[in-house]
Amino acid sequence: MSSNNPRLILGSSSKYRQELLSRLHLPFTVASPNIDEAPLIGETPPETALRLSIEKARAIAQLHPDAVIIGADQVATVNGVQLGKAGNHANALKQLQMMRGQTVLFHSALCVFDARTGQHEARNVITKATMRNLPDEQLSAYLHIEQPYDCAGSAKVEALGITLLEKVESDDPTALIGLPLIALTDMLRAIGITFYSTQA
């Protein structure tokens, strides 16, 4: 890895995104942006996800003008209805009831913001997740075990939530967890970040 890489900051408090980014063997720090994540009136789910990923990255870039910031956001939708973070058991059960037997679209937006130049790139990676048609008692039992109340759609595919899924379709296998690494490595390379030395 080149020592000439700029300082890298992940704009997310998600331990799952942190674990994913660590797979790239790039040194990074973490900062949590303090922004309003509510969707705007008339905003589509992909527009919400992209806007929030950019706003998160930009907020941190203002505090760290020498760094490259990664912002990320995820929005889930089923039959056109946007699903946010449930927050509690009752809301999470309602979400899973709405999702069962359906195909859920997860919009995993990503922004790489180069605070040194002010330039940024943002992408939305869509994942189609078909949910199993499970009865209420199994959905409730899952929620008591996992308590995934802080994630969109109340299902954590990186843990027991995988049991709720029948099929997943995506061009980027880590997008559903919240950080599309294929897209991210492409975007980081575009601003000159290297991942490994080519020297023998």
Architecture per CATH nomenclature, i.e. the level-2 architecture: Alpha-Beta Complex
Share of helical residues: 25-40%
Number of strands: 7
Cα Rg: 17 Å
Quick one: biggest sheet?
A: 7 strands, mixed
Average pLDDT works out at 92
Number of structural domains: 1
Quickly name the level 1 CATH class.
Alpha Beta
Count the DSSP helices. Answer: 5
Low-confidence stretches: none
Structure commentary:
- This protein is of the alpha/beta class.
- It has one domain (7-190): Maf protein, CATH 3.90.950.10.
- 28% of the residues lie in helices and 26% in strands.
- It has five helices and seven strands.
- Strands 1, 2, 3, 4, 5, 6 and 7 form a seven-stranded mixed sheet that branches.
- The chain is elongated, with a radius of gyration of 17 Å.
- The two termini are 12 Å apart.
- Belongs to the Maf family. YceF subfamily.
- InterPro entries: ITPase-like_fam, Maf-like.
- GO terms for molecular function: nucleoside triphosphate diphosphatase activity.
- The active site is at 73 (proton acceptor).
Keywords:
nucleotide metabolism, alpha/beta, 28% helix, hydrolase, 200 residues, nucleoside triphosphate diphosphatase activity, Maf protein, 7-methyl-GTP pyrophosphatase, cytoplasm
